[in-house]
């Protein structure tokens, strides 16, 4: 049975205040916003700066482990939001929690890799989100955790590498240092990189448009 989050609990989740949830009688995974955001979605989506502490996430997952894989209406699990907003410490916690779960005996895929490969309604993985938001540290973590997986295109035909290569600086139209790091991490850590983009374009086409195709050319050679 779903219980909609009242304003008091919503504000507590935003602030990372654990107290109102410690004695909550209903299962925490049933406590949702109208968009089916859980406590973790609310917390991760409302941090104005990267949280230094992971205490709230750790405690909530101890209280309610199913929240680790629970998606909202958009199909986003907590890892999607942590990656989008650059919460690298939280990303590590989420991956470690998934690693602690037993491997699926049928597929042989670990729960951590299963989580890294999960897509939202746009078919974006957490790596797509991190690349789009130019979160180099998160991209490094994600690609090193699952280097053999070739991240395919989303519903718009965009792979993580294409997304990073196509991004422009809002002011001068040139690659920022952070954007270059994102591309380097994808190319350097992934064993099989998908260069694809929409309408027959590739990451190399995108990089050429913004004036820096050197990184991708070197990777091809």
UniProtKB/TrEMBL annotation:
Keywords: ANK repeat. The keyword Nucleotide-binding does not apply. InterPro entries: Ankyrin_rpt (IPR002110). Coiled coil: none annotated. It comes from Populus tomentosa. The lineage of its organism: Eukaryota, Viridiplantae, Streptophyta, Embryophyta, Tracheophyta. Pfam families: Ank. PANTHER family: NO MECHANORECEPTOR POTENTIAL C, ISOFORM D-RELATED, PROTEIN ACCELERATED CELL DEATH 6-LIKE. The keyword Lipid metabolism does not apply. This is Ankyrin repeat family protein. ANK repeats lie at residues 74-97.
């Amino acid at each position: 049975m779903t219980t909609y989050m009242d304003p008091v609990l919503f504000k507590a989740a935003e602030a990372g205040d654990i107290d109102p949830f410690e004695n909550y009688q209903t299962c925490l995974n049933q406590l949702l916003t109208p968009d089916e955001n859980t406590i973790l979605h609310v917390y991760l989506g409302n941090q104005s700066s990267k949280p230094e502490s992971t205490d709230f996430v750790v405690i909530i997952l101890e209280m309610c482990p199913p929240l680790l894989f629970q998606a909202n209406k958009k199909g986003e699990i907590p890892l999607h939001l942590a990656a989008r907003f650059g919460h690298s410490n939280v990303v590590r916690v989420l991956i470690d929690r998934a690693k602690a779960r037993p491997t699926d005996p049928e597929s042989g895929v670990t729960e951590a890799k299963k989580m890294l490969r999960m897509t939202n309604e746009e078919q974006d993985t957490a790596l797509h989100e991190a690349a789009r938001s130019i979160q180099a540290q998160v991209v490094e973590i994600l690609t090193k955790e699952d280097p053999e997986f070739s991240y395919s295109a989303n519903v718009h035909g965009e792979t993580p590498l294409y997304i990073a290569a196509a991004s422009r600086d809002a002011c001068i139209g040139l690659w920022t240092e952070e954007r270059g790091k994102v591309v380097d991490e994808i190319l350097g850590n992934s064993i099989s990189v998908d260069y694809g983009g929409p309408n027959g374009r590739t990451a190399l086409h995108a990089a050429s448009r913004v004036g820096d195709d050197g990184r991708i050319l070197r990777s091809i050679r």
